[in-house]
Amino acid sequence: METKRNLKYFTTRGINILLIIGVAISIAGLLMMFIIPLGNGYNFGFIVLMVGAAVAVFGSGAKSAEADIDNEIYGKIKDMPEQAQIKYEVYEKSFLKILNPVFLKGFSFEGENVHCKKGPDHKYRTDTYNAAQLYFTQEKIYVYGKHLSLLDDSEEANYEFGGVYPFQDVDKAYIEDKTVKLIGRDISVHSFGLRLKDGTDVFKFNVEDGADVDKAADDINHAIEKMTERAIERAADKAAKRAALREFDEKNAKAAAADAQ
Fold this sequence. Notes:
Low-confidence stretches: none
Strand content: 25-35%
Oligomer: single chain
């Protein structure tokens, strides 16, 4: 992980001085090559041009760019759908028909000492990122999540979260909107959470805003309602069958006792 270059991305402000110096030296070398008479002047100008180019290249590569940040994150989350299936041994044939798998992701804007920067694409990026793959079967919700740090490559800063949760234990999926103040600006952030009936959150993190996020929450809540009802019906049916079996066994026991007399 390019932690040092990433840190420079978030902490460097304004103009890239090294890049400007490199370009200026290159221009000076180019002028020397064509203004000073041929011979040593041309050769010296060419050397100056190469030095300027080297300084410019070093200056542009001294810190990560937006594409570097995005590509680094993509490399860490692109295999999560497959990893989730392998981890929980749950595959497409078992997936719930009324609810497609859900993938959530986004930079984290909350917490202490958050590094934040607005790129030329008008997108805010921070030094931490979360992603979660959710799968749904007839009885359970499977959550496989990753918390990533762009500045710290330790296991403590980069970890997995989630688990397996029966529908009847889940209260709801929800979206929470708020405004945080970073780099002197008010930034609107959106959090997606999955809450259990005991009041604890399976997870809650900032996500990229969009209609698909709202739809995911609505679809999950609809499935929670339906699957919980079915779980209650299955439990009631099992209880009725067990009661009938006990009654049958009791009748047989009484009949056997009567015959023995």
